[in-house]
Amino acid sequence: MNTTVKKKKASLPFMHDLCSLCGLCMVQTWPAREGMKICVFHKGWLGELEQDLFGRERIANHDDESRFGISCERCVARLKKPIPGAQFTGIITRLAQRAFETGTVQGVVTLHRSPDDYFFPKPVLAMSSADILAGAGSKPVLASSLTALAEAYRRGLHSILIIGTPCQVHNLRRFQKEYPYIRNTEVYVVGIPCTDNANPARFRWMLRRVSRSHKTARHIEYMQDYTCHITHDDGTIERIPFFSFPRELFGTNVHAPCCLSCFDYMNSLADITVGYIGAPLDRQKMPQWVLVRTMRGQKLFDMIRDELEFFEEVSSGDRRPGILMYAQKIIPRLAQKDSQPIKPGREMSLKKGGEMAALLSASGPRGIEFAKYGVDMHVVRNYYFVKYNYPTILDTLIPRHVRSLLAEYNLQL
Ligand SMILES: Cc1cc2nc3c(=O)[nH]c(=O)nc-3n(C[C@H](O)[C@H](O)[C@H](O)COP(=O)(O)OP(=O)(O)OC[C@H]3O[C@@H](n4cnc5c(N)ncnc54)[C@H](O)[C@@H]3O)c2cc1C
Fold first, then answer.
1. Rounded to whole angstroms, how far apart are CA atoms 200 and 194?
2. How far is the CA of 224 from the centre of ligand 1 (A)?
3. Most buried one in 47, 202, 316, 370, CB count within 10 A?
C-alpha cells in the first residue's frame, strides 16, 4: 500500500492529548487539521451521529438499548466452518470476504500483522479475498486503520467495507458527513466492541508481566470467566485471573487515556457489531455475539446467514453488586489521579485469584447480563477518569445516556 503516512502526527488543535492514533490525520491525502477537527475526542461520543444514522438517539433509560445501542437484530452465532487464525470463528472476516466476492464492495480497510511484532497492526486496503483473510485475528494495540481509507480515496473506489473500533468508526462517520472526499462512497462498517486497548509502546511491557511466556503468545482475550486467556504457539491456553494481574497494570496511566475516555464500548455506529461478550463462554464452539444495526448491516449479515449455527441468548445473575463494589474501589483512586506509587506484585496469588474467578463465574452475571456488567463497569470508570483528568471536556464527551446509567447506581456525578 502506497498511502504516504506522515512520520509525525501534527499537533492537536485542541487543549488535550487524547488521541487513539486512528490514522485520519496521519496521511497527506487531506489536511491533517480536517481529520483533527472532527475527532471524537474533540466532538464527543454518539449524539448527532447516532441521530444521523438511525433517525433518533437511543432511549437513555432503556435497559438494553442504553448499553448496547440501537439494533434491529441480535443473536448468538458461530461460523459452522471457523476460519483458522480468526479471533473467534471469524464472522467478521467472512462478512468482509462475502461483501468483496459478491461485488458489494471494491476493497476492505483492515489490518494485517506487522512484520515487527506478531500483535502489532499494519493497516491495509485489502483488494483480494486472500488479503482480507490475512486480516483475521486481533492485534490488541491502537491501530491507525484509517490511513488505508486514504488509499481507497486515492484509488477512486466507489464502495468499501471498513472494519474498525468505536473511535475509528466515529471519526469515519463524521469525516464522511463533514468533508467531500468520501461523501459519495458507499461505506459498509463492521464494528468490533472494544475496550482497554494497549498503547503500542506499553504492550510488551504489559504482556511480559501477565504471561508466563510473552514471546510464544499468539491469541489474547479477556474472557467471560474473569480470566485472560492467552493461547501459546503450542496450543496450550494460559488462564490468568483478572484478580491476580500485577498491581502495576491497574494504574490509569497504563491503558491509553483515549480508551479511558471512550463511551461507546459496543461500537453503536457500525452497521453491524460482532463481538463475544454477550455470548455464553464455550471454548470449543467459540460462539459470537452479533448486533445488526442498519439496513447495510442486515444486507451483510444475510450474505453469511446460511453459514452460521445459531444459539439461544442467555442472561442470568445480577451485575449490580459487582458494579457497586467496583465503583467504591475505583472512584477514590481516580480522584487521587494515581498520585500514590503502586507497589508492584500480585494482589492475589494465581491460585486464590483462580478460585475467586471460578466462584464469580458460577454465581455472577452471565450472557447478556455479563455484557451489561462490562458496559457499566467501563462507563463508571471512564466517567470519573474524564471528570478528574479532563473536566473541561466532560460535558462534550459524554453522551446523554451515561448520566441515566450512572444514576441507576446512585453515584455522585
Ligand atoms: C483491543 C480489542 C479489545 C476488544 N475487546 C472486546 C470486548 O471487550 N468484548 C468483545 O465482545 N469483543 C472485543 N473485541 C473484539 C473481539 O476480539 C473480536 O474481534 C470479535 O469478537 C470478532 O471476532 P471474529 O472471529 O469474527 O474476528 P476476525 O474474523 O478474526 O476479525 C477481526 C477483525 O478485527 C480487526 N482488528 C483486529 N485488531 C484490531 C484493532 N486493534 N483495531 C481495529 N481493528 C482490529 C482485524 O483486522 C480483523 O479484520 C476486542 C478487540 C480488540 C482489538
1. 16
2. 15
3. 370
- CA–chain centroid gap for 216, Å, is 24
Whether the predicted model's global pTM rises above the 0.85 cut = yes
Contact, 167 vs 261, CB < 8 A?
no
Give the least confident one: 135-139, 193-197, 337-341: 337-341
**Residue bearing the CA closest to ligand 1, atom 22:** 275
Atom of ligand 1 nearest to the CA of 277: 11
Contact 19, 35 (CB under 8 A): no
Question: What residues does each domain of the chain span?
Answer: 12-413
Q: What does 332-368 look like in DSSP terms, one character per residue?
A: HHHHTTT-SPPPPSBSS-HHHHHHHHHHHHHHS-EEH
CA of 58 to the centre of ligand 1 (A): 24
Nearest CA to ligand 1 atom 16: 275
Distance CA 289, CA 302 (A): 16
Contact 392, 41 (CB under 8 A): no
145, 164 Cβ separation under 8 angstroms: yes
CA–CA separation, 73 and 96 (whole Å): 19
DSSP labels, 73-138: EEEEEEESSPPTT-SSS-HHHHHHHHHHHTTS-SEEEEEEEPSS-TTSEEEEEE-SHHHHHTT-S-
Spatial contact of 148 and 22, defined as CB atoms under 8 Å apart = no
* Separation in Å, CA 312 to CA 73, 74, 121, 272: 13, 10, 34, 19
* Phi/psi-derived region of residue 196, left when phi > 0, alpha when psi is between -120 and 50, beta in every other case: left
The least confident of 56-65, 173-182, 245-254, 348-357 is: 245-254
Q: How far is the CA of 138 from the centre of ligand 1 (A)?
A: 5
Cα–Cα distance, 80 to 285 (Å, whole number): 9
pLDDT for 18-28, tens place per residue? 999 999 999 99
Instruction: With a cut of 60, say whether residue 14 has pLDDT above it.
Output: no
Given a cut of 80, whether residue 58 has pLDDT beyond it is yes
